[in-house]
Amino acid sequence: MTESAVPRRTIQTFVRRCSSLTRQQHQGLELYADWRLEAPTALTSPALFGNDHPLTLEIGFGMGHSLVAMADAERERNFLGIEVHRPGLAQICYEAGLRQLDNLRVIEGDALAHLRQYGVPESLDRLQLFFPDPWPKKRHHKRRLVHPEHVAFLRTYLRPGGVFHMATDWQPYAEWMLAVMEQAPGYVNLAGAGNFHPRPATRPLTKFEKRGLEAGHGIWDLLFARTEADLTP
Ligand SMILES: C[S@@+](CC[C@H](N)C(=O)[O-])C[C@H]1O[C@@H](n2cnc3c(N)ncnc32)[C@H](O)[C@@H]1O
């Protein structure tokens, strides 16, 4: 990764919430510790899974139910989840361990920081960002994960042709995402310029999506592919 591709700001895209763990979540961390990666290693399929299956990274999987469902449904694909929220990490270890999902691993912490340290350019086939914190106040917009600096940084880890899939239930953020992504060099909108994408059948309902639907919100999916063009001078 080039020095210029590293975002300089250290503004965080999350708030660390202190919540205690349920009994099941304690079991997740104790019985199924193998699903949680602690030792630093390259974030690639060969290093993490010992094979060269396509790798999907999900940033901020929350409680992880939808990521587990996706990994269960697509065993020939590897899934890596990175989340700061400890109960979510513990819950997904429990669910993945129970199902013995060999194609899913998780890491605790800030996905941007992990990528910066251990990410390998062009190693991801898909990048998923489902119902990220919308940071609705204007003064907090700089904390949004879909932000020009972050999406340029994330692009370097997608293989050419790899897809960045976003979804949100917050209309102003959906419009912001569309504007940011269409301005971002090196991405193409798979739904055609100016359009949101129909919800892919492969994306399970998430906890925050359910919450949004119950509040009467709409749902917007966006799929952008990394173009072949190399942007480095
Ligand atoms: C609103 S929740 C959505 C969770 C889940 N995707 C869903 O739809 O139910 C957003 C999650 O993203 C996580 N998050 C935000 N920024 C992150 C980052 N830089 N790295 C890892 N996780 C992050 C938060 O901890 C939070 O759990």
Which architecture of the largest domain does the CATH hierarchy give at level 2?
3-Layer(aba) Sandwich
How far the N terminus sits from the C terminus, by CA atoms, comes to: 13 Å
The CATH topology of the largest domain turns out to be Rossmann fold
Number of strands: 7
Model description:
By secondary structure, the protein is α/β, with parallel strands linked by helices. It folds into 2 domains: 28-120, Vaccinia Virus protein VP39 (Rossmann fold); 129-233, Vaccinia Virus protein VP39 (Rossmann fold), CATH 3.40.50. The chain has 8 helices and 7 strands; from the N terminus they run ααβαβαβαβαβαβαβ. Strands 3-2-1-4-5-7-6 form a 7-stranded mixed sheet, sandwiched between helices. It starts with 22 loop residues before the first helix and ends in a 7-residue tail after the last strand. Residues 1-7 have low confidence and may be disordered. The protein binds S-adenosylmethionine. S-adenosylmethionine (SAM) binds next to β2, α5 and α8.
